[in-house]
């Protein structure tokens, strides 16, 4: 099961990196979403993928039964999902505003902050 | 329901914490509280300034008290919900963290006072001061936490508030800069999260003291070098080190100058802080393996940052490149890794927090007096404002690392450390970078201050303003004082570096009864 998940996570990362290398902001955003979900799956896999063994310590024991899934990574994922979702919402609005204001979604043409023909500093006094 | 018969003393802290221990969490709680209050009164813009300055002054006071406490009694720990570490999230302040928190609080106060003049009613209605409070919550939390996932959460807190500050005003230029900043920083923190996932899979714990204790046992079997490389990449991205630094010059010159000052002073230094914390304290052996890579990146960062500064016409972009050159110097200390070198890095970080913020404020004031951001448009500032020019010159010299100002001592420490291990090329890079930064900044003084105005403009009468004079004056005084009387800070940073190299006091503060099983 873990090996399968590892392959799946690898596919997520590959697709995310491919998309993020694009010049178009929408694709970059989709890449970021995929990357975030890939990371969530990765965190999920680190906590063992077993079913049917509840992570509850039975009476008289002070550790989980062997083979039970670790619940902590799931708490981490919960935090990460909330954070990455809110960031994605912010980025989505920002990209839309950038498209409205700059009239392009091509990062090569977004040169307003760093103009191509910027003046050089004066060379003489 | 019957009372539980199990003994809870194995899981919970039963004695209530010492009153002074609350100092560890108070800076963060205070900033979140003031942020919430400011959100509640966001319509009454007139109140914002007073409330925010009160909050920041209290923050400086609390951080000073924490620093005194930590430097006398050693690291202080407090756990959330009274769960014993490593189960509860621990806040652990050691000397390094509390020094950084203290200096950032001073800088935030100075920037807050400057903002009273710089941020107009529109910017305040947009929420400048609440964002500033939450940014400081994130920064203080990152410096004081003792849990690596919690560190990630504080990174995100400061990142989301920095987004809000960056697009304050919503000009097209800002949106362009913010898009690049947001995308690259989000990828950086995601890389950090990936590294945390692997770290948890290896160690089964997220508490830094616990990790530091367990690393030596797992070194033989676990792929810790790969893990450390992942952390270094993530933090280098946050700190704007060479191959991953391009988001900084693309965005730091676009927001209001107070925001640039805060970012230039604080955000990259949080990245450096995390880099030092993870590589020097948690994975020292792995850092040694990767030191050549870090050293090359450091050398390139310094030289490219300095060359970039030389090529700029816009003052704000020039200062942005000076920030990058400084990051290279701090990375050099991490690459060398001896306690002397790490103490040089810590010194440099403290100096850089103050000086870079002050340099951005100088750029803002120069533009207000001279009416332009570019070197080609500025001129005649010396005649106009001699005192301001003197402060600027002092800060330029400090940033370049010339005596008798604050930039000298960290550079000397780093040079000596790199010569001690025979890394002459790293020492050469530090000197070359300092030389080019000196050229770039002295040209600014020549063109913008000494040169007469390029085209005689109508002389505007610009009144002196305490909201500009005080922050700039205090930051300059700090830099001069540190340059002239370095003993206290030198001693503190050396003790901080020793505490990182030999974290037994840190571990003992988290696990008073010996390390966790």
Briefly say what this structure is.
In chain A, 58% of the residues lie in helices and 0% in strands. With 125 residues, chain A is an all-alpha fold.
Q: In one word, what is the shape of chain A?
A: elongated
- The CATH top-level class label of chain A: Mainly Alpha
Q: Low-confidence stretches of chain B at least 5 residues in length (pLDDT < 50)?
A: none
- Our estimate of the beta-strand percent of chain B is under 5%
Find the count of extended strands of chain A (DSSP E, 2+ residues).
Answer: 0
Major beta sheet of chain B, specifics?
2 strands, antiparallel
User: Helix/strand-derived class of chain A?
Assistant: mainly alpha
Number of alpha- plus pi-helical segments of chain B: 22
- What's the SSE pattern of chain B? HHEEHHHHHHHHHHHHHHHHHHHH
CATH topology call of chain A: Helix Hairpins
Number of DSSP E strands of chain B: 2
Could you tell me the radius of gyration of chain B in angstroms? Answer: 23 Å
Largest contact between chains = A-B, 41 and 47 residues
By secondary-structure content and strand pairing, the structural class of chain B works out as mainly alpha
Coarse shape of chain B: globular
**Number of helical segments with 4 or more residues of chain A:** 3
Mean pLDDT of chain B: 90
Mean pLDDT of chain A: 87
Sheet of most strands of chain A: none
Describe what you observe in this structure.
The complex is a heterodimer of chains A (125) and B (517). Chain A is mainly alpha-helical and 125 residues long. Chain A has one domain (2-52, 68-106): Helix Hairpins (Orthogonal Bundle). Chain A is built from 3 helices and no strands. In chain A, helix 2 (25-46) packs antiparallel against helix 3. Chain A is elongated and about 80 Å long. With 517 residues, chain B is mainly alpha-helical. Chain B has a domain at 290-505. Chain B is built from 22 helices and 2 strands. Chain B has a two-stranded antiparallel sheet. Chain B is globular. The mean pLDDT of chain B is 90. Classes of the chains: A mainly alpha (125), B mainly alpha (517). The A-B interface holds A 20, 25, 28, 32, 35-36, 39, 42-43, 46, 62, 70, 72-73, 76, 79-80, 83-84, 86-87, 90-91, 94-95, 97-98, 101-102, 107, 110-114, 118-122, 125 and B 10, 149, 153, 156, 159-160, 163, 167, 170, 172-180, 182-183, 186-187, 190, 193-194, 196-198, 200-201, 204, 249-251, 253-254, 311-314, 374-376, 443, 446-447, 451.
């Amino acid at each position: 099961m873990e090996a399968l998940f590892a392959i799946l996570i690898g596919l997520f990362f590959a697709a995310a990196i491919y998309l993020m290398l694009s010049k178009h902001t929408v694709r970059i955003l989709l890449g970021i979403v995929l990357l975030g979900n890939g990371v969530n799956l990765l965190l999920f896999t680190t906590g063992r993928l077993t079913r049917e063994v509840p992570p509850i310590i039975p009476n008289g024991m002070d550790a989980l039964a062997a083979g039970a899934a670790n619940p902590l990574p799931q708490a981490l994922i919960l935090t990460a999902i909330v954070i990455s979702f809110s960031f994605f919402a912010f980025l989505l609005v920002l990209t839309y505003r950038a498209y409205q204001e700059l009239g392009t979604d091509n990062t090569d043409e977004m040169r307003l902050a760093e103009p191509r023909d910027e003046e050089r500093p004066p060379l003489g006094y | 329901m019957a009372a539980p018969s199990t003994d809870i003393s194995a899981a919970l802290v039963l004695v209530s914490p010492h009153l002074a221990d609350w100092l560890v969490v108070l800076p963060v709680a205070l900033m979140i509280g003031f942020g919430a209050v400011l959100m509640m009164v966001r319509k009454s813009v007139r109140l914002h300034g007073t409330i925010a300055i009160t909050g920041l002054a209290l923050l400086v006071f609390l951080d000073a008290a924490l620093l005194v406490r930590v430097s006398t009694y050693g690291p202080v720990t407090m756990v959330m919900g009274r769960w014993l570490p490593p189960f509860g999230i621990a806040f652990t302040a050691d000397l390094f963290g509390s020094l950084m928190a203290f200096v950032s609080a001073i800088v935030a106060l100075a920037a807050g006072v400057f903002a009273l003049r710089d941020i107009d009613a529109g910017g305040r209605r947009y929420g400048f001061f609440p964002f500033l409070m939450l940014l400081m919550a994130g920064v203080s939390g990152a410096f004081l936490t003792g849990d690596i996932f919690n560190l990630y959460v504080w990174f995100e807190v400061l990142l989301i508030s920095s987004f809000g500050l960056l697009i304050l005003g919503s000009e097209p230029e800002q949106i362009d800069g913010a898009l690049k900043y947001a995308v690259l920083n989000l990828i950086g923190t995601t890389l950090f999260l990936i590294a945390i996932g692997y770290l948890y899979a290896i160690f089964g714990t997220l508490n830094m003291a616990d990790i530091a204790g367990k690393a030596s046992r797992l070194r033989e079997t676990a792929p810790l070098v790969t893990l450390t490389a992942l952390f270094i990449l993530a933090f280098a991205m946050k700190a704007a080190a060479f191959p991953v630094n391009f988001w900084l010059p693309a965005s730091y010159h676009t927001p209001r100058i107070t925001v640039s000052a805060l970012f230039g002073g604080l955000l990259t230094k949080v990245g450096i802080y995390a880099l030092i914390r993870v590589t020097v304290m948690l994975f020292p052996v792995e850092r040694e393996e990767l030191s050549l890579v870090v050293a090359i990146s450091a050398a390139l960062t310094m030289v490219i940052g300095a060359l970039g500064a030389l090529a700029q016409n816009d003052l704000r972009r020039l200062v942005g490149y000076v920030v990058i050159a400084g990051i290279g110097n701090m990375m050099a200390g991490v690459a060398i890794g001896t306690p002397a070198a790490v103490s040089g890095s810590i010194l440099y970080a403290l100096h850089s927090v103050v000086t870079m913020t002050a340099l951005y404020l100088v750029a803002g004031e120069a533009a207000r007096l001279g009416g332009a951001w570019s070197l080609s448009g500025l001129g005649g500032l010396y005649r106009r404002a001699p005192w301001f020019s003197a402060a600027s010159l002092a800060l330029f010299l400090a940033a370049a690392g010339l005596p008798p100002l604050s930039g000298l001592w960290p550079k000397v420490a780093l040079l000596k450390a790199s010569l001690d291990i025979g890394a002459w090329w790293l020492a050469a890079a530090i000197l070359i970078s300092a030389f080019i930064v000196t050229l770039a900044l002295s040209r600014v003084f020549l063109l913008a201050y000494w040169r007469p105005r390029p085209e005689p403009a109508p002389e505007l009468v610009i009144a002196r303003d305490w909201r500009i004079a005080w922050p700039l004056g205090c930051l300059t005084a700090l830099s001069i004082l540190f340059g002239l009387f370095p003993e206290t800070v030198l001693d503190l940073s050396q003790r901080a570096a020793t505490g990182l190299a030999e974290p037994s006091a840190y571990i003992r503060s988290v696990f008073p009864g010996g390390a966790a099983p």
